[in-house]
Amino acid sequence: MASLEELRTTRLHKLGLLKEAGMDPYPSRVPRTFCLKDARGNFEEYAKASKEVSLAGRILAIRGQGAILFVVLYDGRGKFQAVFKKDVLDEKLFNLFTDAVDIGDFISVTGTFFTTERGEPSLLVKSWTIAAKTLLPLPEKWHGIQDTDERYRKRYLDLLMNEELHEVFIKKAKFWDVTREFLKSQGFLEVETPTLELTTGGAEATPFKTHHNDYDLDVYLRISVGELWQKRLMAAGYPKTFEIGRVYRNEGSSPDHTQEFTNMEFYWSFADYEDGMELVKAMYRKIAQEVFGTTKFTTRGHTFDLAEEWVKIDYAAEIKKQTGIDIATASEKEIAKKLDELEVKYEGTNKERLTDAIWKYCRKNIAGPAFLINHPLLVAPLAKSIPGTGVVQMFQPILAGSEIGRGYSELNDPIDQLARFNEQKRLIDSGDTEAMMSDHEFVEMLEHGMPPTCGFGFGERLFAFLADKPLRELQMFPLMKPRG
To answer: Domain segments of the chain: what residues?
Structure first.
């Protein structure tokens, strides 16, 4: 088998043949009447009238030999067959095609529609021109790129050769379109908030840090879709807002963890978490039906139906039921001991991190659809508390053993918020890199007054779960370490 360098040398020779024949191997424009998908839609009309058309695309296959060739073209929207006949096409053009063109090249063909003896709609080629000559071959058609690292580095080839993956990204775009349309239909205003922040808020995660040269200060890439900014908009008198945008978290890599991804967050004044649950339930059902054509899914070893009743699961009661630990009274040492018994890996020894770790063990056994409620105040520094209970008005949709979204009745008491920020600062000072930074300007805004508000957010992880694919697989171009 020839090496890549040998194949490239051969194709460079073919590039020379095209130039010698007077063809520009990389023209800025080639004849094209319509895309290949539309070629099928217009086939009957143009075939009946013997109208001449031009089609363009990448060559995926060449069959036949001698006086007739069958060439499959692909343009990202469809495939169509072009037929080259030596007695129809100028002999020099026919020979140039056989001598200088390879699978993977882009060409434009002009001719008339006809149907082959096998009933395949086709174009009988009367002339052709090169659109882009390739110097390296495509992966083998039936197997594509097998090595995962290579697939991600050469994602353009992976998407070209893997039709299912190609379609998934079209579906992902529709996922966000449906989300946007749903929220707008409910009266939400789409907004844009800063991606560079002096303090990160709205989530507990390690941020990326950079430097603003003009102001000579360090800033952070946001870890949420403008939570503290959208709440300012509630104070400003906007009743309903949402944003869909990129967020960045300086965390580890795995099939279900990436450093940048798309999230959506909405904020709704004069609404609480009970209102939020009803809206989110309707939104998830709408997304599922519009994007996937069903509300029933099997993913991550669980089966669930979004059209069924969404049960409410109490955070502490579920942990006690599954592990026997009462998180309200258990010490850090007792929770850590139970985690060790369960062989659960955890980071950090403060009660917030330990409580989160034992919950993550429990959630794996819940198929959903469900709403997790009554979280301890310790794990929700921005949520309104339920007086006298030690828990907050927070909800999380649970699907296939994981939380897929998070919402609260937002905290609007400035004194309470300052106290919680101070507790988060204590955690940061003790070495917790994921604790939430304090934002005193946000507290000042609360002192001016913010109405009762429900906030909620979810990310593309929801799409990954419904599509039953790892999150990293659904990044078009995941971050890769440079080759050494």
So the answer is: 4-138, 159-310+368-474
- Topology (CATH level 3) of domain 4-138: OB fold (Dihydrolipoamide Acetyltransferase, E2P) (2.40.50)
Note the pTM of the prediction, 2 decimals.
0.89
pLDDT score recorded for residue 104? 96
Give me the pLDDT at residue 102, please: 97
Q: Using alpha carbons, list the distances in angstroms from residue 252 to 64, 207, 313, 404, 464.
A: 51, 12, 29, 19, 18
Q: Which amino acid is at 229?
A: W
> Top-level CATH class of 159-310+368-474?
alpha beta
Average pLDDT over residues 20-45: 96
In tens, the pLDDT along 318-372 reads 999 999 999 888 999 999 999 999 988 888 778 888 988 999 999 999 999 999 9
Query: Can you tell me the distance from the alpha carbon of 389 to that of 180, in angstroms, rounded to the nearest whole number?
Result: 36
pLDDT score for 281: 98
DSSP 3-state of 22: coil
In sign, the C-alpha dihedral spanning 301, 307, 309, 315 is: positive
Joined tokens for residue 384: 């309104």
- When the pLDDT of each residue in the chain is averaged and rounded to a whole number, the result is 92
Distance CA 420, CA 427 (A): 11
Question: To which H or E segment does residue 431 belong?
Answer: none
Distance of alpha carbon 162 from alpha carbon 469, whole angstroms: 14
Pairwise CA distance, residues 382 & 200, whole Å: 13
What's the first-to-final CA gap in the chain, in angstroms?
27
**Token pair 């330990």: residue:** 354
